[in-house]
């Protein structure tokens, strides 16, 4: 039986393990933590065909510079002397063109649609116990500027074959009565779905363990050793692991690990914040608060408020004023919804692996023939977990992939 070692136990690593186990492989997962926290657990739980525009879009650099000196802004770049970050920023700028965004849109859409279907396939097989439903997503706006912006995006979404409807104030209040009077309307993406991430991750991890997957947790990977054109072993803080195939799905830590092999997989950690309100809020639909860049999700037993993109290196420090910005946004967009100081103190953070062009890196290494890399999903890691796992399985078995992945090539920034 072919053996596979997966480095990384986030949603990408565990979904890869799921599809490889289904094909009868012997799988080992190694992670520096205990797989109970992080971005895969605290995200907004969206499966998002609606998010078809990559983060590297025209104007984002200009906006980022404006927000750079406001550490409470939705998109915060901490000024720092870092050569790798400087190179990443240059690649981000080169990617943020209308032409490149136009090429990325159909790829992102197809990845999300296929992943959504795979989630419901997993749910239908009744092997996993997790909450998932397709209620759609509301893009709420309280300014004329964003009304115009969201209308253009909705028109584009309909051109792409997604189900998008513009709702005025009255129509919005009929479906979501708790929105504040200041909210002018919403774009309603019926194509979207959502789940409860920590529930999915816990159930998937338990299923994998019961189906023979060996977990080595709280083990940091110190080195990856290659011999010729193949990986021979992974050295952790506790042992050496050998296998026939290796999968690098280490999220924000992928860049440093790939560097040990002479590979350039430019990824920066984008910190996001999340907090739960475990009492009735009256919120029925997942929503993006567009001006504040915050996400709101009614999950199984609680409502989650999440947001921000903070490029400040690899750290999980909680900045209270950034948490407060999310709490203030909730009160602005919804009537009688407030997040208490105690709930704000319980906020958590997670690091999302952000590529320069907003597309993930998924592919086989041309330098190391038994290495597959899957990372760089930015804010769509949870959304794209199943399709990425499926693609990893297809790559390892040298099958035709479910979608064309040329645009996700590992060497596109060499």
Work out the strand percent. Answer: 15-25%
CATH topology of the largest domain: D-Amino Acid Oxidase, Chain A, domain 2
- Name of the CATH architecture of the largest domain: 2-Layer Sandwich
Tally of distinct domains: 2
End-to-end C-alpha gap: 35 Å
Biggest beta sheet attributes: 9 strands, mixed
- Counting helices, strands and paired strands, the structural category is alpha/beta
Number of helices: 12
- Rg computed from alpha carbons, rounded to a whole number of angstroms: 21 Å
Percent helix: 25-40%
What's the CATH H-level superfamily name of the largest domain? D-Amino Acid Oxidase, subunit A, domain 2
What is the number of E strands? 21
The residue-averaged pLDDT reads 95
Characteristics:
21 strands; FAD/NAD-bd_sf; globular; 2 domains; D-Amino Acid Oxidase, Chain A, domain 2; oxidoreductase; FAD/NAD(P)-binding domain; 12 helices; nine-stranded mixed beta sheet; FAD-dep_OxRdtase; D-amino-acid dehydrogenase; six-stranded mixed beta sheet; oxidoreductase activity; 414 residues; alpha/beta
Quick recap:
This is D-amino-acid dehydrogenase. The protein has 414 residues and is of the alpha/beta class.
